[in-house]
Design a protein that fits this description.
172 residues; mainly alpha
């Protein structure tokens, strides 16, 4: 997201339209992140909705305008972590809008990947989601999750190795 510093400054001063514009630019990334992390459409929508409400009411606390995207994703990742703790057993089929409807073999491969992804532990899914969908570095993820950056990298590496092994087994 190319951050519009002027819009962020307006939003910080209480301009609801400026905040709405910022939100519209980042909504898809927020939703995708939450959906892959939580693996449930309703939970993802709720997490994003709560995130936006919290962000809107506390945007005046944002210290640096250039950190808007990282700040709102931090709020969302906290919401997702809380939902992990509230619901250990979640699961719903991946929504249609995330599948490749033009290619049946592509859909099957995509669903295999998604099913394997959802077999990962909550923290592993969160780390991979934060890296792939939100674009965080391992140092940023470490700061958000209160972990060491090396721990984040090794957890991500192990999770990706698991995914690769599970996918290989399915192709058999």
């Amino acid at each position: 997201m190319k951050q519009n510093l002027q819009q962020i400054k307006k939003a910080k001063s209480g301009d609801a339209e400026a905040f709405a514009l910022l939100y519209s630019e980042i909504y898809t990334d927020l939703y995708r992140f939450a959906l892959y992390a939580l693996k449930n459409r309703a939970d993802a929508e709720d997490a994003v909705s709560e995130t936006v409400m919290d962000a809107f009411t506390s945007i005046h606390k944002l210290r640096r305008e250039t950190s808007f995207q990282a700040w709102i994703f931090q709020i969302l990742s906290t919401k997702c972590k809380r939902r992990f703790q509230e619901k250990k057993e979640m699961g719903e089929a991946l929504p249609e809008e995330l599948t490749d409807s033009g290619n049946l073999s592509g859909i099957a491969e995509h669903m295999d990947l998604c099913n394997c992804f959802f077999k990962l532990k909550d923290e592993e899914r969160l780390i991979i989601s934060m890296h792939i969908f939100a674009g965080y570095t391992s140092q940023e993820i470490a700061a958000l999750l209160h972990l060491n950056a090396n721990t984040v990298r090794s957890k991500e590496s192990r999770a990706l190795k698991k995914l690769s092994e599970w996918l290989s087994e399915q192709k058999g």
